[in-house]
Amino acid sequence: MNVIALALHIVGGVGVTVGICAVLLFCVWRVLYTIQQGTSYVRRLHQIPCSRCTYFTGDYRLKCAVNPISALTEEAIGCGDYVCNSPAYGSLCSQDKMPYQHIKELVKQ
Hints:
Layout: H1 2-45, H2 101-108
């Protein structure tokens, strides 16, 4: 009987130790996962070009003269009406095509 009680006591101590380690590992994993999700979300938000656009007013009542509903939201990423307001931004203003290039091409034809 004493041997069984001693075995249960040893196993119980190991089980508690394993349980505490598992909870701590889960907490560390969850913190790291949350940090990774947060950084990817912030990277996505930094792709919103509105503050560098000519049509951006900076007024909270009318943020954008062309697309006021989607201004400063994730919908504004890849906005077709985006026109860089300053060449000082350099690579931040880069686009595949110049603004309204498709209209210029149609006028030439």
